[in-house]
């Protein structure tokens, strides 16, 4: 959940071009980043578990597994295109699961194509709906899917596992109008967006502060 330092007070104080893009997109969605702290556009977090399994519905599940650790993972880009690649997240080589949970910030409304290449299985859910379903043991297999999205934040849930030997995963898209696949970029992947309740509380705080100032001027 580490946030970029210097990115806690508003669009003008972001540290990097990339986080600046996130802040501006959040602002375009009507979300004021200045009141939610660095977590508003923090990079995606990955969580590693000590084994893998499919549940009764055939979905990759971490239920009952041991959490090995977490790391900040700005984008899901862990394969160099060779058939002998080994990712080994957090040094784990065999029999593990990695999950990414956060939000995808769709820059515009439209139909988005998604593609994974993975060894071994992967599933992608957006707003709780299956978009890519390729959960079998495989040697750098391709998964394809699409989703029609509104502009703005959509819950993203990516689950990946490694059985044995080679391992890697990439997560790509074609935005509306794109001709070619590209890695879903860090600029559209965040761990958290402002909670509506936090937004309302911040507005209430601003109103109270403004009221106090007004009363002082009258006094
Ligand atoms: Ca391996
Ligand atoms: Ca493998």
TrEMBL record:
Superkingdom in the source lineage: Bacteria
Coiled coil feature spans: none
InterPro entries: Ice-binding_C, PA14/GLEYA, PA14_dom
A Pfam family recorded for this sequence: PEP-CTERM
Gene3D superfamilies assigned: Toxin - Anthrax Protective Antigen,domain 1
SMART domains, alphabetized: PA14
Domain PA14 as annotated: residue spans: 39-187
Name of the protein this chain belongs to: PEP-CTERM sorting domain-containing protein
Organism: Aquabacterium soli
């Amino acid at each position: 959940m580490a946030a970029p330092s210097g990115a806690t007070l508003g669009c003008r104080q972001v540290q990097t071009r990339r986080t600046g893009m996130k802040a501006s997109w959040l602002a375009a969605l009507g979300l004021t980043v200045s009141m939610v702290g660095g977590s508003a556009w923090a990079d995606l977090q990955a969580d590693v578990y000590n084994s893998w399994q499919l549940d009764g519905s055939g979905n990759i599940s971490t239920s009952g597994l041991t959490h090995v650790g977490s790391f900040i993972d700005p984008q899901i880009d862990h394969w160099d295109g060779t058939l002998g690649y080994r990712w080994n997240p957090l040094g784990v080589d065999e029999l593990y699961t990695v999950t990414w949970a956060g939000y995808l910030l769709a820059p515009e409304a439209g139909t988005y194509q998604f593609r994974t290449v993975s060894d071994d299985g992967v599933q992608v859910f957006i707003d709780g709906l299956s978009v890519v379903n390729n959960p079998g043991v495989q040697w750098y297999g391709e998964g394809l899917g699409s989703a029609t999205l509104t502009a703005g934040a959509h819950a993203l849930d990516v689950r990946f596992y490694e059985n044995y030997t080679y391992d890697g995963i990439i997560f790509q898209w074609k935005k509306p109008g794109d001709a070619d696949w590209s890695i879903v970029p860090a600029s559209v992947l965040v761990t958290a967006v402002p909670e509506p309740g936090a937004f309302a509380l911040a507005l209430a705080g601003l109103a109270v502060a403004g009221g106090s100032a007004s009363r002082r001027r009258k006094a």
